[in-house]
Design goal:
six-stranded mixed β-barrel, oxidoreductase, 26 strands, Nitrate reductase, about 725 residues, alpha/beta, molybdenum, MopterinOxRdtase_cofactor_BS
């Protein structure tokens, strides 16, 4: 008997009548799970299962992957191009030729009137890599604007900047197999069980085989923190203080790897002088971690035969995000934990193909981690594409978080949004809305016509989703994996690479360049461009068929090699001018918005397992949406008692930017002076967030701002709640 029931309902497994299974890699988070989608006799996707012999997930899937086959039947899909003259007009159906002709004509008109950089392009982390490459080729080689970025600036830019500053180039140096070899794991602002469940399963398997210390640094008692041996509930935004203090203890007690530092690192004396100021007692007063605990953790980490660090948004989404990443890299470098089994500094990426856009999209530079700032890189790509090298700018333009202020100032007049939803995902949402209203022309290209940003578009282009097109993605551990097409897109929706190639034909420069028609041909072009003796990002030994056969291949894999390389920098040589990694000496500067008498609570945000970015997908899959269909916040019961707030009542949260109505969930997971809201709801957390920017990555500090709690009429709040359950 369970909860008074005498007759248990038996578990039944429905026969989905699958007649064929199609191979793919999951299109949600960056874990990179190999998946098979089952088709019935009518060719309809009816089931999903993990691929048993895949090196990443070994047959396992999280709840999002289990129901991923349902994406092809979700509501709100775009089935035809739409156009209108003003954003307050109704959309009218258009042909692809009409929509692309108008888009090209408006881009040309605006560039002729205001200059080449008066157009901005913002893409995503969810296209296929061949599509990222094609878009980069179009923007850099044809349209020519330098204001081109991806929404990965909102999640991974600090990791990119940190890797570049420390190691000389982007690219996570470690792999999932390091969990099997490490003797200590320290996680910063990462809630693996909910953000990346299958990576967490890999860690749990490793811990069952061989116990090692698990240390979680997070201001919230996340599920990951609950499973940890040591939880460090740090004050939001002060990670650099803790990292400098850990380095202080390691150096003060002589626990560093002197031989590794001498052979492979620059800047040791400068680092030593800086961290000397961050003794544990001084640091504890800022970061909130007890001085003795700081010493204990530093000793555990430094004395382990191998130790690895992982992090996610808790580090990246901060005004000190890049410094935090460099601080983590410092710890690994001074202990010799780079490029060895179990010793790595591993950024856990957000979106399914955020790595693909970092590698090939040309947002921050040129394809294959090439830099606009290097003349030889501009010459190399220009020759390969058949364009004039002088057409490329000599440095990177505006990033996404700087593009919207440039719209406000009139510098940018047209915007092309590709498969992202800034009206929900950007901080300070009211300001973003006003900026979009100022544009002369905006195009939104998305699989869903009910994406909130479409409301401000003049042209809507319907894109194909996962499984409706074919190509590769790169996961957190640099593993390139393949999505096979298994279903046709609805109506007139088209693969994104087709849209990019067709638009290129409408420009004189595009007509002079070659844009391959199939993704396998595009991949072959990328392979040729990846070659180079000193290049880590070399995929010349791969092919679509080989990738599927091996269930994903890690780069570098050079021509003639049988498999990829699991780790970077194992030889101790880094892509810096002298081949050594950089130890960075960084002081902490307090620039957060902190709680005060008027706004007494920290506002924290993050992912929950059943959601994915802005819920345009997961909000329409019943077995996912049913768990958290409406905006809510976690609040400490003691704080609630003081504020007169009851469990499951509604409250109004207020910051200096705006307000939001949420349902209260009382829990001890958050401290007395903090509330937590999932980041995926429209008209919610980003009405409140501040979005101060990291100076290197330009990534917003989503997680450090102050709010107050106000009472609200429960009936009116309930009405708003019902409205927000639209999907």
């Amino acid at each position: 008997m369970i909860f008074g029931r005498k007759n248990r309902k038996p578990i039944t497994i429905t026969d989905k009548k699958v007649v064929d299974w199609k191979y793919a890699v999951c299109g949600y988070c960056s874990t990179g799970c190999s998946i098979e989608v089952g088709l019935n006799a009518d060719g309809k996707p009816v089931a999903s299962r993990g691929k048993g012999n895949a090196p990443v997930n070994q047959g396992k899937l999280c709840i999002k992957g289990i129901f991923e086959h349902e994406l092809s039947g979700t509501a709100g899909r775009g089935v035809e191009p739409l156009m209108r003259n003003k954003i307050y007009d109704s959309f009218q159906p258009a042909s692809w030729d009409q929509a692309l002709d108008r888009t090209a004509a408006e881009f040309k008109r605006i560039q002729e009137k205001y200059g080449r950089d008066s157009i901005a392009v913002v893409s995503t982390g969810q296209l296929l890599t061949e599509e990222f490459y094609t878009l980069g080729k179009l923007v850099r080689g044809v349209i020519g604007t330098n204001n081109y970025d991806g929404n990965t600036t909102l999640c991974m830019a600090s990791a990119v900047s940190g890797y570049k500053r420390s190691f000389g180039a982007d690219g996570p140096p470690g792999c999932y197999d390091d969990f099997e070899s490490t003797h200590c794991l320290m996680a910063f602002g990462s809630n693996l069980p909910e953000q990346h469940p299958i990576i967490y399963w890999r860690l749990k398997e490793a811990l069952e085989k061989r116990k090692f210390p698990l240390i979680v640094v997070d201001p919230r008692v996340t599920m990951f923190a609950q499973f940890a041996d040591i939880h460090l509930p740090i004050t939001p935004g002060t990670d650099l203080v803790l990292l400098n203090a850990l380095a202080h203890v390691i150096l003060a007690e002589g626990l560093q790897d002197e031989s590794y530092i001498e052979a492979h690192c620059n800047g040791f004396e400068e680092l030593k002088a800086t961290v000397a100021k961050y003794d544990p007692v001084t640091a504890s007063r800022i970061c909130g971690i007890d001085a003795d605990m700081i010493k204990n953790v530093a000793r555990i980490y430094a004395k382990a035969p191998s130790a690895m660090s992982i992090w996610t948004m808790g580090i990246n989404q901060s005004t000190h995000g890049t410094d935090g990443v460099c601080g983590i890299n410092n710890l690994n470098l001074i202990t010799g934990n780079i490029g060895i089994p179990g010793g790595t500094s591993l950024s856990i990426t957000g979106q399914c193909n955020a790595m693909g856009t970092r590698e090939w999209s040309s947002c921050s530079g040129l394809p294959g981690y090439r830099m606009l700032e290097k003349q030889e890189h501009r010459d190399e790509v220009a020759k390969f594409w058949g364009v004039d090298a002088d057409f490329f700018p000599a440095k990177r333009g505006l990033q996404q978080t700087d593009i919207f202020p440039a719209i406000e100032s009139g510098e940018i007049k047209a915007l092309w949004i590709v498969a992202t939803n800034p009206l929900t995902s950007m901080p300070n949402q009211p300001r973003i809305k006003k900026a979009l209203e100022k544009l002369e022309f905006m195009v939104v290209q998305d699989g869903y016509k009910d994406c909130e940003t479409v409301n401000f578009a003049h042209v809507y282009l319907p894109g194909a989703l996962w499984g409706e097109k074919e190509g590769v993605q790169t996961n957190t551990e640099r593993r390139v994996n393949l999505v096979r097409k298994f279903v046709e897109p609805p109506g007139q929706a088209k693969p994104d690479h087709w849209v990019f190639s067709e638009l290129a034909k409408r420009f004189e420069r595009g007509q002079a360049m070659t844009f391959p028609e199939t993704t396998s041909e595009i991949f072959d072009e990328m392979k040729m461009l990846s070659k180079g003796a000193k290049r880590n990002l070399d995929i010349s030994g791969m092919s679509h068929d080989l990738i599927e056969a091996q269930r994903g291949i890690q780069w570098p894999m050079r021509e003639g090699e049988a498999t990829g390389n699991p780790r970077l920098y194992s030889d101790g040589i880094f892509p810096t001018p002298n081949g050594k990694a950089n130890l960075l000496a960084m002081d902490y500067i307090e620039d957060n918005e902190v709680p005060n008498e008027g706004y007494p609570f920290w506002l924290n945000s993050g992912r929950v397992v059943e959601h994915f970015h802005t819920r345009t997908k997961t909000g329409k899959i019943g077995n996912l949406n049913k768990f958290s269909p409406t905006p809510y916040m976690e609040m400490n019961p003691d704080s609630a008692r003081e504020q007169g707030v009851k469990h499951q009542s509604y409250v109004r949260l207020v910051s200096k930017r705006g307000d939001a109505v949420v349902m209260v969930q009382l829990t001890q997971r958050v401290p007395h002076n903090m509330v937590f809201i999932p980041m995926h709801y429209h008209d919610c957390v980003n009405r409140l967030s501040l979005g101060l920017l990291d100076p290197y990555s330009r990534q917003p500090a989503f997680k450090q701002c102050a709010v107050r709690i106000e009472q609200i009429d429960q009936k009116e709040a309930g009405r708003l709640n019902v409205e927000r359950r639209a999907f």
